[in-house]
């Protein structure tokens, strides 16, 4: 996901204006359909590409991200058409994230062949750079494969038919990343019967999913499909049986309000929601409050109530960035072997409180907080640019 030129992120939700993380809509690689969408503020929709080989769980399910990983997958951005003058800063953020994760587990970085040398130099020898899987951008959470396990040593992958967030950004290479990673790893690959992105769906690993209607029940991804049809396809792909839906925010960022910038699952029956300041009344803040209200009154697939932890967001007046589209999502953290990789934004009190909350929630892991402001200005975060491969 991206928004460049006026970059915007794949999954953020701070107070912002107009389109974001896809603010890049005005910049690069816009298809005619995407341009039409931008022109009407997200109310026009392009047709989704045809689906093939629907995925059925068949005993496989996407596990919670706290399980042990074999590696983390990432992608090296090199498009100045997408990122403009922000490219160097975003590359530095990607390298920092990769090097930090590599202290805890292997990292595989997909890069265009012309950028392999630069990616290797920036990321260091601890990160494996792969030049045979070309990419358009860095949002591996959305373009990459979703890995599933079956509890008996089996591993397979599902592609979510990535279409550039509803054809809002060029994605010829990224549309093939999921299948190419599956082929590279020698893992079976199938295709989900809906169009979506990894950042749009959260799973508790025990049958429950959560998502926003705005990002999935959306004519630019799934024209002609009803909510029940999409729900069935999501459950089949993720090995789940229930979806908790939030309304979301339509047309304000390229992702149409990905859930992973606001709400996450910590464990079966346990969730987390990043909350705004009491005085914040923008659409993203109201959306967060609605997500908290819905999740805290929901039950999981097993029928048990979901307990919800509040993660306090920062004061946008105290963070380093003055970009109106900045995404300051502590909730967009990434869990890897032995660590939680999270952002910090310059509001020292909120940064420290978020770190303490995450440390309490993940007591056996080291919490590393990174300055990833260039990514935040592009509308995304650490979870957005990573994809875990679980141990079978």
TrEMBL record:
Q: Which InterPro entries match?
A: Peptidyl-Arg-deiminase_porph, TAT_signal
Provide the GO biological process annotations.
Answer: putrescine biosynthetic process
Query: Per its record, what are the GO molecular function terms?
Result: agmatine deiminase activity; protein-arginine deiminase activity
Keywords of the record, alphabetical order, are: Hydrolase
Q: Which Gene3D superfamilies match?
A: L-arginine/glycine Amidinotransferase, Chain A (3.75.10.10)
Note the Pfam families from the entry. Answer: PAD_porph
The name on file for this protein is: Agmatine deiminase family protein
Q: Which organism is it from?
A: Streptomyces vinaceus
């Amino acid at each position: 996901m991206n928004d460049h030129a006026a970059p915007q992120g794949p999954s953020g939700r701070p107070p912002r204006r107009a389109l974001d993380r896809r603010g890049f809509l005005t910049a690069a690689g816009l298809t005619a359909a995407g341009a039409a969408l931008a022109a009407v503020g997200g109310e026009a929709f392009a047709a989704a590409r045809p689906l093939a080989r629907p995925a059925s769980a068949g005993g496989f399910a996407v596990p919670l991200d706290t399980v042990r990983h074999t590696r983390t997958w990432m992608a090296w951005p090199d498009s100045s058409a997408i990122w403009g003058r922000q490219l160097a800063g975003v590359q530095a953020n990607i390298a920092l994230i990769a090097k930090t994760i590599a202290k805890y587990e292997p990292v595989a970085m997909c890069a265009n062949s012309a950028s392999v040398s630069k990616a290797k130099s920036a990321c260091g020898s601890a990160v494996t750079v792969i030049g045979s899987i070309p990419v358009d951008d860095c949002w591996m959470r959305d373009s990459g494969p979703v890995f599933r396990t079956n509890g008996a040593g089996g591993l397979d992958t599902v592609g979510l038919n990535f279409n550039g967030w509803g054809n809002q950004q060029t994605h010829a290479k990224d549309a093939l990343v999921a299948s190419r990673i599956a082929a590279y790893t020698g893992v079976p690959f199938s295709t989900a019967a809906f169009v979506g992105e990894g950042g749009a769906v959260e799973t508790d690993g025990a049958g429950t999913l959560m998502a926003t209607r705005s990002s999935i029940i959306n004519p630019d991804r799934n024209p002609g499909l009803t909510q029940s049809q999409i729900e069935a396809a999501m459950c089949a792909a993720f090995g789940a049986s229930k979806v908790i839906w939030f309304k979301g925010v339509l047309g304000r960022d390229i992702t149409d309000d990905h859930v992973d910038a606001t709400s996450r699952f910590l464990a079966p029956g346990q969730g987390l929601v990043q909350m705004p300041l009491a005085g914040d009344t923008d659409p993203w803040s109201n959306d967060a409050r609605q997500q908290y209200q819905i999740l805290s009154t929901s039950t999981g697939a097993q029928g048990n109530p979901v307990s919800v932890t509040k993660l306090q967001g920062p004061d946008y007046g105290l963070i380093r960035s003055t970009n109106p589209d900045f995404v300051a999502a502590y909730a967009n953290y990434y869990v890897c072997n032995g660590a939680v990789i999270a952002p910090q934004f310059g509001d020292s009190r909120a940064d420290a409180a978020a770190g303490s909350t995450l440390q309490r929630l993940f007591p056996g892991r080291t919490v590393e907080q990174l300055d990833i402001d260039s990514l935040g200005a592009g509308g995304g975060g650490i979870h957005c640019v990573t994809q875990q491969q679980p141990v079978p």
